[in-house]
């Protein structure tokens, strides 16, 4: 039982990172029907900004704030400078997805050029080694921090989307763009804001993941793919689904790694995804693809 | 009197080669109800969409002036913020949002103190919306959805309200209710431009009507004139008169006056 709890807690911590990544992907997919392949690389860029600023001796709060802002800024600039002109020229959904892939590659090489390819340890205020014992279950300070940060971020994000006027405009724009335009909602700015928010959530995940792994230009690749899988598991157009999907994926991975073999960590998780999608192709909380005629 | 909306020989094309509007001109006077009639494919919806700016880079030629200012080829948000509110055929509701949220979005960009009063006005006009205010709008019936769209449009304080087939898919009783609300809205001082297949109902509340066919306006006149016109009677009002055979068919095609 203690073992089970131990694995579950570890799974929740990684799962909440997947959830944050998935949340950003789902947000962008919901509002623009674009799969953002640059999501992981925007996150990496943000983490490297924090790393560079910490290197010149800035305090953590300032460096992390700058990282979040720079991630959001990259996404917003990409939306305004690349996607909007592309949409004006009637680019298809697929070519816009390819554009995000291009952004990802550009960011990757920029990060490799300026940040170096060598894996580097990422300094962090919370320690991975400092642990707490809660009734036999051991949890590290960092995992606790990850859980707290993910919970806080998703809560704030939920309040933003559900309770504010800006959130209402975001929901309206993502659901029916022409109608939102005729309501006089500044849809471009709203969508740019959504891109920024998505990147911000991703950078939060990246900042908490970097001390767990080593920082190199490709450190977000696997978490990005897992986040992607989590978003699809939960239903790509559902925000709560992204969180649920991330947590399930994280816990499933941890349990499989603990009880079967570490080699099966990914296998079982993706088997679960396949099984779920066979039964519910729209994902756990996704809306069924029905078109009323 | 200066017209509220003045359209001068606009041409709208789909895919750069299919003419939907063919040098069309019309004028809309303030505080009156204008109806555009016409068969399928005449370009009625295209006309409204062109005015609302929803067709990118259209009209290709010609000008649209609203209160003396050119609005052709502006972004739809800009046109909407000038006071032209377009209610599309599919009603353009936010289906996953609740009735109240839909109405709140209708007040987007408004900061004046009259919001409460206007909310009260639309709830009075359509009491059913108050009862349903917490419900997702996709769960409403067709008539209720139409009412919600009109209520939402009213909250935008339109100077010109454009409706695309407000009676589409509604039971006769419900569409009468919708038309009753429309004439109340018009009495409150809103200019209305509507496209309608149901000519009888439209001409019932309109002051002026246009008949469109294949991208042109072929006939115009005030509602009484149109109702008295033989061709309109035959084609739109279903009053065959003496030209129709008692068996319901005839061997020659009557030439229209246009």
Automatic annotation (TrEMBL), chain A:
PANTHER family: ABC TRANSPORTER PERMEASE PROTEIN, BRANCHED-CHAIN AMINO ACID TRANSPORT SYSTEM PERMEASE PROTEIN LIVH. Its main location: membrane. Belongs to the binding-protein-dependent transport system permease family. LivHM subfamily. The keyword Plastid does not apply. Keywords: Amino-acid transport, Cell membrane, Membrane, Transmembrane, Transmembrane helix, Transport. GO terms for biological process: amino acid transport. The lineage of its organism: Bacteria, Deltaproteobacteria, Candidatus Desulfacyla. InterPro entries: ABC_transp_permease, BCAA_transport_permease. This is Branched-chain amino acid ABC transporter permease. The chain crosses the membrane at residues 6-29, 41-60, 66-85, 97-116, 136-161, 190-215, 227-252, 259-279. It comes from Candidatus Desulfacyla euxinica. Pfam families: BPD_transp_2 (PF02653). GO terms for molecular function: transmembrane transporter activity. It is a multi-pass membrane protein. It is found in: Cell membrane. GO terms for cellular component: plasma membrane.
């Amino acid at each position: 039982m203690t073992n089970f709890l131990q694995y579950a807690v570890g799974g929740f911590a990684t799962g909440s990172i997947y959830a944050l990544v998935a949340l950003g992907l789902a947000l962008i997919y919901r509002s623009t029907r674009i799969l953002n392949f640059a999501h992981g690389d925007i996150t990496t860029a943000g983490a490297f900004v924090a790393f560079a600023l910490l290197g010149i001796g800035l305090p953590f709060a300032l460096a992390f704030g700058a990282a979040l802002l720079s991630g959001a800024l990259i996404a917003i600039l990409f939306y305004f400078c690349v996607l909007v002109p592309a949409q004006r020229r009637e680019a298809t959904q697929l070519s816009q997805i390819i554009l995000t892939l291009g952004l990802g590659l550009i960011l990757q090489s920029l990060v490799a050029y300026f940040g170096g390819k060598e894996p580097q340890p990422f300094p962090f205020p919370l320690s991975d080694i400092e642990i707490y014992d809660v009734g036999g279950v051991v949890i590290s300070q960092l995992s606790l921090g990850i859980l707290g940060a993910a919970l806080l971020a998703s809560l704030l994000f939920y309040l933003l989307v559900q309770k504010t006027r800006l959130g209402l405009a975001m929901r309206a724009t993502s659901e029916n763009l022409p109608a939102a335009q005729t309501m006089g909602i500044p849809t471009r700015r709203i969508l740019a804001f959504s891109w920024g928010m998505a990147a911000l959530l991703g950078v939060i995940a990246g900042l908490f993941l970097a001390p767990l792994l080593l920082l190199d230009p490709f450190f977000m690749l696997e978490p990005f793919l897992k986040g992607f899988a989590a978003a699809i598991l939960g239903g790509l157009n559902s925000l709560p689904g992204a969180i649920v999907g991330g947590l399930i994926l994280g816990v499933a991975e941890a349990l499989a790694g603990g009880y079967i073999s570490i080699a099966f960590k990914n296998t079982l998780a993706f088997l679960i995804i396949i099984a779920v999608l066979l039964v519910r192709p729209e994902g756990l909380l996704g809306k069924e693809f029905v078109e009323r005629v | 009197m200066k017209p509220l909306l003045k359209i001068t020989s606009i041409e709208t094309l789909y895919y750069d080669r299919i003419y939907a509007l063919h040098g069309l001109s019309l004028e809309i006077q303030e505080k009156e109800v204008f109806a555009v009639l016409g068969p399928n494919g005449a370009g009625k919806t295209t006309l409204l969409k062109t005015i609302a700016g929803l067709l990118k880079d259209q009209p290709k030629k010609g000008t649209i002036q609203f209160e003396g200012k050119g609005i052709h080829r502006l972004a739809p948000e800009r046109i909407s913020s000038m006071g032209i509110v377009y209610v599309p055929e599919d009603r353009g509701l936010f289906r996953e949002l609740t009735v109240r949220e839909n109405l709140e979005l209708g007040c987007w960009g408004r900061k004046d103190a009259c919001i409460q009063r206007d909310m009260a006005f639309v709830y009075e006009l359509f009491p059913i919306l108050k009862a349903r205010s917490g419900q997702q709008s996709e769960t409403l019936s067709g008539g209720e959805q139409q009412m919600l769209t009109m209520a939402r449009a009213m909250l935008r304080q339109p100077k010109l309200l454009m409706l695309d087939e407000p009676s589409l898919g509604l039971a006769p009783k419900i569409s009468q209710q919708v038309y009753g609300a429309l004439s109340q809205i018009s009495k409150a001082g809103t200019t209305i431009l509507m496209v309608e297949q149901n000519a009888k109902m439209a001409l019932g509340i309109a002051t002026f009507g246009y008949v469109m066919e294949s991208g042109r306006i072929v006939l115009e006149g005030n509602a009484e004139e149109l109702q008295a016109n033989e061709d309109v009677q035959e084609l739109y009002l279903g009053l065959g008169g003496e030209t129709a055979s008692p068996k319901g068919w005839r061997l020659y095609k009557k030439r229209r006056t246009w």
